[in-house]
């Protein structure tokens, strides 16, 4: 009897170890009903760029904000500004222009974005020229 | 091996694995992070596809759009998925704002050239560019001074031929000043490149027999009358355009407003020419 119980306990411990490995590592739960907030950061950034390009089409900043809300960011404005500045620092050229346009529409145009605006503001020198 | 019961070991193993899987899959599953687009819910997938379509409308990069859509791992053709989402949005009447219309056009612009189709096909046509002609104000007519009477009376000439009897003419129904009331470009395969003119009076009643002049290429023109297509009402007249030409439409009366329209293709479908509904209103 002792032998059986001992074997059962050994098997139980080994089984738990194997089961945890299988359940968390080898065959973890795969979510198939996820929200945009659960997307991997890379996909979230790509989605934001697509929304920024969409803003270039409809020029509707409120619609862009509504499309970004499902990402679940605490502050969408901060997120757009940070992502835009990151793309600028990475010289991610294709994404910079639409992101700068969206950041500007959200009132988050920073000095580093200035030169990437599609219609840069005239320089004071140019205005002073005869 | 004498101290181990194989049966007990296997039983413990099975129970242990079972308990651990219940715990790792149900009670404390791995935290959801780093999800890929194919794992999105239906509504999130729709948001994603809309973003892809808007992006394509801006950058026209079809390969990029295809790669992004493929990340959804759809069970069917990616373009069919886009068409289905456009159809669902159309059925659910999710088109309320201008931005919604832009989305519908972007979706259609993405799936239709790839051969997919759905119930939203052609529901949100891109309006053709319309060139409005600024009407030059007509100066007030100057009254012609009546020449002063001369002292010498004009001799009355007698002729042997009898005078032509005066025949009173009926009052012309279309007389008056006309203004452009409405212009509506549209795309319809049944009505390809047609100018549909409707002429109304101030009370909204159709007026038949109004001459409408269509001119193009500087020196060419054609005249047609309203009311010749009884099924369309007394106010209706139409003219078929040739692709690529610019036409000027006006009621053939003095000082009437005129409207220029272009026979441009409907979106990407070069075989379908934009048609126009132009309404004139008589100001009594």
Radius of gyration of chain A: 26 Å
Beginning-to-end CA distance, first to last residue of chain A: 105 Å
Total of helices of chain B: 5
Largest beta sheet: strand ordering of chain B = 1-10-2-5
Structural description of this entry:
The complex is a heterodimer of chains A (130) and B (284). Chain A contains six helices and no strands. Chain A is mainly alpha-helical. Chain A folds into two domains: 1-30; 36-120, no CATH class. In chain A, helix 2 packs antiparallel against helix 3 and helix 2 crosses helix 5 (93-105). The longest helix of chain A has 25 residues, at 2-26. Chain A is rod-shaped. Chain A starts with a helix and ends with a helix. By secondary structure, chain B is α+β, with helices and mostly antiparallel strands. Helices cover 27% and strands 21% of the residues of chain B. Chain B has five helices and ten strands. A four-stranded mixed β-sheet of chain B has the order 1-10-2-5, with no helix packed on it. In chain B, helix 2 (42-59) runs antiparallel to helix 3 (62-70) and helix 2 (42-59) crosses helix 5. The interface between A and B is large, with 52 and 52 residues.
